[in-house]
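C-alpha cells help. Our protein:
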Amino acid sequence: MAKPITAFTCTACGASHRKWAGRCDACGAWNTVIEEAPLSQGPGRGLGTLKGKPIPLSGLATQDAPPRRATSGIAELDRVLGGGLVPGSAILVGGDPGIGKSTLLLQAAAAFARAGQQAIYVSGEEASAQVRLRAQRLGLGDAPVRLGAETALRDILTTLDAERPDVAVIDSIQTLWSDRIEAAPGSVAQVRASAHELVIFAKRRGTSVILVGHVTKEGQIAGPRVVEHMVDTVLYFEGERGHQFRILRAHKNRFGPADEIGVFEMTGGGLAEVANPSALFLSERGEASAGSAVFAGIEGTRPVLTEVQALVAPSTLASPRRTVVGLDGGRVSTILAVLEARCAVPFAGLDVFLNVAGGMRVSEPAADLAIAAALLSAREDVALPPEAVLFGEISLSGALRPVAQAENRLKEAQKLGFSRAILPSATKVEGVAGMRIDRIADLTSFVGETFGAG
C-alpha cells in the first residue's frame, strides 16, 4: 500500500513545505508550520494534499442586478427566452427534421445582428452556399451575419475565441467532433464533450451560444441527457408538417418561466410570429357541432384558447380504438374510466378519437373537463353551447377540482367573444364582469345538467 503523502503549511502566509520546520522560509514566522490533512481520502490517492484556491462566497441577502438581455425584435422568440438573450447563456433547440429549426435560428441570428449584436452562424450540416440561398429566400441577404461551415470543434472554438461574437449559432451539436476523442460524430462521448466545451466557452467569454440538437423517434433530444442539464435553456419545436403552425416551447429556462410558448406560422418567407394564438387556433371553428369543446388553458404565462375535438363511433373491433392527438393518452383513459364508473356513461364497444385543433399539445390537468365534455357531446350527438369555455380538473371520485389562474383564462375568453364559462364550483373568480359563470361540483352534475341523464 502506498504511503499517504503528508504536507505542511504555514498558517501565516499559506506557503507549503515538504517537512516540518520551526521557522517558515517564506515569511520568516516562527512556530506557524503545521501538518495539513489530505484534501480527500477516496479510492487511490483521491485529490491528495494539493489545495485549490478559495472561492468567493456571498450571503443570500446580496442584491445582484438583473441580467442584461439582448432582444431580437421577434416578440415570440424573446417571450420564450424569458425576455431576451442573456449574455453567456447556452441554449439547446430541438425538434423534428424539417420543422424549421435552422430557418428560425437563421432569422434570429439576422435579427440579433441587425439589432447591433455581432452574430456568427456555424453550420455543420450544410455548405455556406446552401445557407446563403436560404437567407436570400427569406430576405435576409443583407443581414450582417458572419457565416461558416465547419465540424471540427477545435477550429470552431478557435474562431469564436478570435472573433468574440455576442451570439453564436451551432447547427448542429451532433455533427461536431473533437480530435481528443476516438469516436464518431454524434456518439455519446462526442456530443457530451462538444457541449461541455461550448458551454464553458459561453460562460468564460460571455457569448450566447445556441445549439441545435437532433431528436429521436420518441421526440427526445438525441445524445446523453446530461447535455440538457449542462445548458441554461432547452427549447423544443413542436408542430405537425400538415399544419402551418409551429410552437416553440421552453422545457427548461434558468432565466425565465418554463413551459412558455411562442407561436409561429410557416409561410413562404419563413416563420412569421403569431401575436394572438387563441384567435388563430379558433379561426377555423364554424357553427356549433357535436364533439367540440373550447378549453381555456395556460401555457407558461400566456392564456391560450384551443378547441378539443372528439368523435365517438361504434366499433367493429374486439378492442375498440383509442386514438389521441395532442393530449396525454393515459389521462384520456382515466377520464373515460371515471365517466363509466362514476357517471354510468359506457364507452364499451365504441371507438374514441380525440384531437386538439391546430396541432397544439395540451398537457394541463385543467383540460379534463373540456375533454369529458367533448367526449359526452360526441357520444350523445349534442352540441355544447357555442359561447361557452370549459376548464377544470377531474379527480378519480368524479369531483371537479379548481385550477390556477382562472381570471386570466376568463379574461382571454371574454376578449375573444365568449360570454359563458363552465368551471368547478370551488374556483375563486373576481373581477370578470359581464360573463355568465356556471359552477359545477362534480362530473355527475355536469352530465345531468348538460346532457340529461346520459
About this structure: The domain at 75-275 is CATH 3.40.50.300 (Rossmann fold). The two ends are 80 Å apart (CA to CA). The longest strand covers residues 302-314. The chain has a mean pLDDT of 88.
